[in-house]
Fold this sequence. Notes:
The protein contains 5 helices and no strands. Helix 1 (3-24) crosses helix 2 (31-45), helix 1 (3-24) packs across helix 4 and helix 2 (31-45) packs antiparallel against helix 3 (61-77). 77% of the residues lie in helices and 0% in strands.
Amino acid sequence: MKNGAWKKWATSLISNIYALYLASRDARVPILAKFIIGLVVAYAVSPIDLIPDFIPFIGYLDDLFLLPLGIWLAIHLIPQEVWRECQALAMKRVSEMPRNYRGATVIVVIWLLVITGFILLAWQFVSGIKST
Length: 132
């Protein structure tokens, strides 16, 4: 994918996730769809997976399969008129969101510091094992 395609895909993903959130708060959406949306969100943010992520390749298969399946199912349970309204509102709101590059920079710096700290701890641990 080219750079523009990735940006379009990411914006679409954010917009659709926000549209699902909006749909979950709409009274016209059936309880089953709201339940599925809740399960998808809970599974997405849960640290517990059916297959642990630390298992190479296979660990991410459940995320790559179950999350899109849950999203697809939730979207198909939402009345199409409601889904279109939620998508339109989500696209509008996402495009109006301010870009906070300072906040993103702070988050990236924090992650880099955490990763650096783990690397230094691992280095000290390995050095301590080698010297004994």
